[in-house]
Amino acid sequence: MRAWTICILFTVCCLGCNQAEEARRKEAEAQKNEAHLKWIELALQNYHSNPSGKPLFTVVADLSEIVDGSNQFALDLYQQLRTKEGNLFFSPSSISTALAMTYAGAAGETEAEIASTLRIQMPNERLHEGMKTLQDFWKLPAPSKGIKLNLANRLWGQESFEFLPEFLGVTRDQYDAELSQLDFAQSENARQTINAWVEDQTENKITGLIPAGAITLHTKLVLTNAVYFYGTWRDPFKERLTKEEDFHLAATDTIKAPMMRRTDEYRYGDIDDIQILELPYGDGSLSMVVLLPKAVDGLADLETNLSFPNLKRWMASVRHEDEVRVFMPKFNTSSEFEMSRTLETMGMKSAFDANTADFSGMTGDKDLFISAVIHKAFVDVNEQGTEAAAATDNMAFGGGVETEPKQAPIFRADHPFVFMIRDNRTQAIMFLGRITNPLE
């Protein structure tokens, strides 16, 4: 039996197009889609304001279902990854996008297991069309509005190795993932080429995604996904007000960390022994949502209860407040994972087994399996805003405080907390993590 491997890379960071013709094509496509996406956004707002009703249009129903599934996957994955000590940061949207491309070529039990893990409950065609619409939303924010969010997908195939045109058509048309051919027999050259692409797409925030030795003679396909996010706060913090203050690592253990502060209008919630703060970026299409346990040592309880139903209930409690006194640490952190065993635990068992994997939708034969899934992520939060990058390699085969009103709620993030970066138009979780030590 021949068994070839596929390498899947997920990169989250900044990406820019180097070719003028491609840039013009994408600009024209964006202009064509913008009116359609605005219509969908309005329909989504109507649906979210009345979730007990039924969406009037299939595209809205599908997009809502895909986002709900993606968010459930994000929280499922968080529960697996939180056993890692220290800070945590990853991009569930990047991982699910790359796995969805893999799903396009899966069949049989492998297909069913990926669908279950990703919380997919719709036919393939509708899923991939919905994923395209979702990615089109993510490409919409303009840098002039204080948000830069770019995405890129790419397939890297072994020279002369044949892939089914149906598979390449789905990845090209629905994920904008073109096929580039490499000679994986020259493994180091191939590794450097792909890593250079990742670095370029993430503005050098994610480097060395594929480690030496990961690409072998058996590698036939590498799938890459790149996402870059940079957002300036709608209401920036003033640097002169940032001061060294206590950050409680535990009930009896503290460090000094730079604490930003601002009193302003924010969306804020207080429920189930946690405080919730929404910090909008730019035009408000994306926000950072911070989940802060009231108890200094309350992170473990918060994480245990961090489920999809609870998160929806918590977010429903968030309301506009005229004034919230915010104390937020500056931080930057990075995470790296080899996620094969994690995804196996979540139900993707056959995909990593050369004897049982079925990716016949890619080649027509059961000759491919996933050998590794590598994810790297980076985030930097300061007075101006947030920069985030992540990469995943799946180898189957990356203001000021002028006044402080006495009645204003106080949100003091001086102990471990969970945070996410969310697309407010679709409610999709783009990034998810926790900070246990802002200096690490």
Automatic annotation (TrEMBL):
<dbReference type="InterPro" id="IPR023796">
    <property type="entry name" value="Serpin_dom"/>
</dbReference>
<dbReference type="InterPro" id="IPR023795">
    <property type="entry name" value="Serpin_CS"/>
</dbReference>
<dbReference type="GO" id="GO:0005615">
    <property type="term" value="C:extracellular space"/>
</dbReference>
<dbReference type="Pfam" id="PF00079">
    <property type="entry name" value="Serpin"/>
</dbReference>
<dbReference type="InterPro" id="IPR000215">
    <property type="entry name" value="Serpin_fam"/>
</dbReference>
<dbReference type="InterPro" id="IPR042185">
    <property type="entry name" value="Serpin_sf_2"/>
</dbReference>
<dbReference type="GO" id="GO:0004867">
    <property type="term" value="F:serine-type endopeptidase inhibitor activity"/>
</dbReference>
<dbReference type="InterPro" id="IPR042178">
    <property type="entry name" value="Serpin_sf_1"/>
</dbReference>
<feature type="domain" description="Serpin">
    <location>
        <begin position="75"/>
        <end position="438"/>
    </location>
</feature>
<protein>
    <submittedName>
        <fullName>Serpin (Serine protease inhibitor)</fullName>
    </submittedName>
</protein>
<comment type="similarity">
    <text>Belongs to the serpin family.</text>
</comment>
<dbReference type="InterPro" id="IPR036186">
    <property type="entry name" value="Serpin_sf"/>
</dbReference>
